[in-house]
Amino acid sequence: MDLEAAKALGTALTKGAALLGAGICMGFGAIGPGVGEGFAAGKACEGISRRPEEYSQLFRTMLIGQAVSESTGIYSLVIALLLISNG
């Protein structure tokens, strides 16, 4: 194998590893926000069913909690995009 072929193989392996890492990053990065947002929505529905007069406060608090939970998913998206662009 000559030097050019070795460089091409190394570049292909690096790009493949970066794409695989980006996929794994997004896969694991989406688990936490999905579970967290589902839990928050479920508890908000439970609270609203118990005290319907507190709907607006419960809904507002739920949305803030989901936004905070979603930030980790956005961080994993940024890391995945960096892996794709630099790979």
H and E string: HH
CATH class: Mainly Alpha
The count of helical stretches stands at: 2
Proportion of residues in extended strands: under 5%
Low-pLDDT segments, ≥5 res: none
Task: Note the main attributes of this structure.
single chain, about 90 residues, mainly alpha, F1FO ATP Synthase, 2 helices, rod-shaped
Write up what this structure looks like:
The protein is mostly helical and 87 residues long. It has a single domain, classed as F1F0 ATP synthase subunit C (F1FO ATP Synthase, Up-down Bundle). It contains 2 helices and no strands. It has helices at 3-50, 55-86. The longest helix has 48 residues, at 3-50. The protein is rod-shaped and about 75 Å long. The model has no long low-confidence stretch (mean pLDDT 90).
Summarize it.
The chain has about 90 residues and is mainly α. The chain is built from two helices and no strands.
Give the topology:
Blueprint: H1 3-50, H2 55-86
